[in-house]
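chain below, 241 aa
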Amino acid sequence: MKAIILAAGRGSRMGDLTSELPKCRTELHGKELIQWQIEGLCGAGITDIAIVRGYLAQTFTFDLHYFENQRWSETNMVMSLLAADDWLRSDTCIVSYSDIVYSSDAVSRLRRAHGDIVISYDPNWRDLWSARFSNPLSDAETFRLRNGLVTEIGNRAGTLDEIEGQFMGLIRYTPSGWCQIREFLNRMKAEQRDKLDMTSLLQQLIAAGISVHAIPIVDQWFEVDSAEDLAVYSEMEMKLH
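prediction:
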């Protein structure tokens, strides 16, 4: 099994923190976010790791494999995923956002999960969102399940009843699952693919009848969207394992 970290974007909501380094190179508790990710993946036994880079690509100096999204400034995350097509077609891959921190155990659970397309989610999301936002609903997205399958994801939530968890930014694709996604994306116009974010893709796959499985993760994890997030997390004890 291999892993792919999607790190092409700048992370403009971080302000000046990303003026000289990409978002994933910002530090939390003495380590860059991407170092936390690499350690989490390696701790789960995944050492074949690739980074999809774009913004300030030359600043990535890790001894890992690299894919390039040279159109990072005009495309969204799905196009970064497509840049790693060679790996996704040939191996089962764990795909990770580059602005999250998670445990090796979370990766191991996702690695053992069944299904061609599997995402991890936090059923106790309100604890983290309440620490980040005065009103958790201001940022949370819809997430609904039925028998372990996602039925809705990524829409604006109006009530807490619409949220059974929050997607963590970790996905596992088998080559068969990726083949279904490639066929789906090939039917889209280029400008639609360019603008497509990951949760929108997942929602469209579900609407097209493609199964998206989900597994709950109750370990500590963090999502970094802003400098304010970093300030909140810096006051928390790290309990990753």
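DSSP finds nine helices and 13 strands in the chain. Residues 132 and 229 are 6 Å apart (CA to CA).
thats it, cya
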